[in-house]
Amino acid sequence: MTNAALGGSFRQINRLNRTGMHADLEELVSLTKGLFVTFEGGEGAGKSTQMRLLADSLSARGYDVLTTREPGGSIGAEAVRHVLLSGAAEPFGVRMEAILFAAARSDHVEEVIRPALEQGRIVLCDRFMDSSRVYQGVTGNLEPGFVETLERVAVNGVIPDRTIIFDLPAEVGLERARRRSSENPDRFEKEQLETHEKRREAFLDIAEADPERCRVVDATHPPEAIAAEVLRLVEALLPGNGEPQSSAVEAAS
Ligand SMILES: Nc1ncnc2c1ncn2[C@@H]1O[C@H](COP(=O)(O)OP(=O)(O)OP(=O)(O)O)[C@@H](O)[C@H]1O
Ligand SMILES: [Mg+2]
Q: What's the burial of 131, exposed, middle or buried (CB within 10 Å: 0-12/13-18/19+)?
């Protein structure tokens, strides 16, 4: 059986194991011991900042952390990233863009994310499938069935254990993103404020529809306060419930 056949998150599979899962699935469980956390939200919400801070905290506790991003994160997907963010694919329509995002995601999942999770690593990813739901689905006006099909093919069973949604008024996020970068705005940054507000609502709708996986963080707070909250939101899912990994190993020996 493949991970995709189970269709659940890595954490859910581990939970099943602890509550007495069928022995035939032992091998599968041993392949699914990592933790997958995604960072979602609008432009300038602090996703990249908080991902770095969480990676530092977890690494300091002895966890093996991989940070990655979308679009991109693998050699194939990084090649597609430029096409998407430069706007080169825009004239071909939102369906074409959505398929390119899915192609990049599929490569990223199979080449980078799944192998890291199979090794038991903690994978932190800056944007993932929810960004496609919001940018191509909601504000791209693609039919939900089309977006769902692409998502299923691209993630192929690799669903985040936890998704942190950084919530911020669109004008604050855009102002932050502008201040940070002297370059020209990318394909998505240059859109109307109204579009960005719609995306904010769409991210909140996702969180409401999937409360087990998603947590919303008020991204207007100072970075250090947000970092503490993000750590708390991930801690409960860590192997050993957030105990430093080295002492967890000592305790077991
Ligand atoms: N909590 C915060 N309060 C104030 N400024 C912040 C906060 N978090 C991040 N910033 C600043 O806002 C800018 C955008 O942050 P960051 O790059 O982390 O956002 P992002 O969500 O990754 O944006 P993008 O979607 O454009 O990649 C940066 O200059 C960063 O230093
Ligand atoms: Mg970023």
A: buried
Q: How far apart are CA 141 and CA 162, in angstroms?
A: 26
Instruction: Determine the residue type at 135.
Output: Y
Ligand 1 pocket test, candidate residues 39, 43, 49, 175, most atoms within 8 A of CB: 49
Burial label, 240 (beta-carbon count in 10 A; 0-12, 13-18, 19+): middle
**Predicted TM-score (pTM) of this structure:** 0.84
CA distance 67 to 65: 7
Token pair of 186 as six digits: 């990318």
Segments making up each domain of the chain, as ranges:
7-239
- Output b/e per residue, 166-204; b: 16+ Cβ within 10 A: bbbbbeebbebbeeeeeeeeebbbebeeebbeebbebbe
pLDDT of residue 211 exceeding 60: yes
Residue 51 Cα to ligand 2 middle (Å) = 9
Provide the pLDDT for residue 250.
Answer: 37
First-last CA distance in the chain: 32
Q: Is residue 48 in contact with ligand 1, taking CB distance under 6 Å?
A: yes
With bands split at pLDDT 50, 70 and 90, how would you rate the model's confidence at 177?
confident
Q: DSSP character for 110?
A: I
Q: For domain 7-239, give the fold.
A: Rossmann fold (3.40.50)
Query: Cβ(137) to ligand 1 under 6 A?
Result: no
Structure tokens at 109: 């999942």
**pLDDT tens for each residue of 114-125:** 999 999 999 999
